[in-house]
Amino acid sequence: MKGMTLIVKKTTQLIAGIVFLYGIYIIVHGHLTPGGGFAGGVIVAGSFILLILAYGSDFMHLTREETGSTITENLGILLALMIALAGMITGIKVFFFNWLPHGTVGELVSAGVIPLYNIFVGMEVAASILTIFLALLIFKEEVTKW
User: Fold this and answer.
1) Which residue from 40, 42, 88, 130 lies 20 to 30 Å from 27 (Cα-Cα)?
2) What CA–CA distance (Å, rounded) separates 7 from 114?
3) What is the biggest distance separating any 2 CA atoms in the chain, rounded to whole angstroms?
4) Higher pLDDT, 11 or 91
């Protein structure tokens, strides 16, 4: 797929970075405001999907087996699981124990391990949605070759 017109590509250059940063903002502030890892991950994936739609599949050098997003997806799940298991090792033997200091309510560095869970869930959701999109894109290209 070659991509879209020059106007769409230039508009995407301006918007994709803003959309990505907004997704990161939603992930990081998820314990203070509505949002969190899932919603922010969807927005981050949307910024990459926007780039792929505007520039075409050649832009990201997509191959039939795209492993980068799958590795990121697995890493996000693994890190979240490791923090949950660390709760069992430290303090009370409870899975998902909040073992970091809770901080002051309303500040960015508060809520213990919950912001870390938001970050890792955001990584996992963004990679999952991007992997699904890439799989559909590769499937479409394979079907049109027939």
Assistant:
1) 88
2) 41
3) 60
4) 11
Amino acid letter for position 32: L
Burial of 145 (0-12, 13-18, 19+ CB in 10 A): exposed
pLDDT of residue 94: 72
Distance of CA 145 to the CA centre of its chain: 31
Query: In angstroms, what is the C-alpha Rg of the chain?
Result: 18
Tell me which residue of 99, 77, 74, 76 sits closest to 86, measured CA to CA.
99
- Sign of the Cα torsion 26, 31, 35, 39 reads positive
What is the residue extent of each domain of the chain?
Answer: 6-145
pLDDT band at 47 (very low <50, low <70, confident <90, very high): very high
Distance between first and last Cα of the chain? 16
Helix (H) or strand (E) holding 133: helix 114-145
List pLDDT tens digits, range 99-121.
777 777 777 777 788 888 889 89
Per the CB < 8 A criterion, the answer to whether 42 and 22 are in contact is no
SS3 41: helix
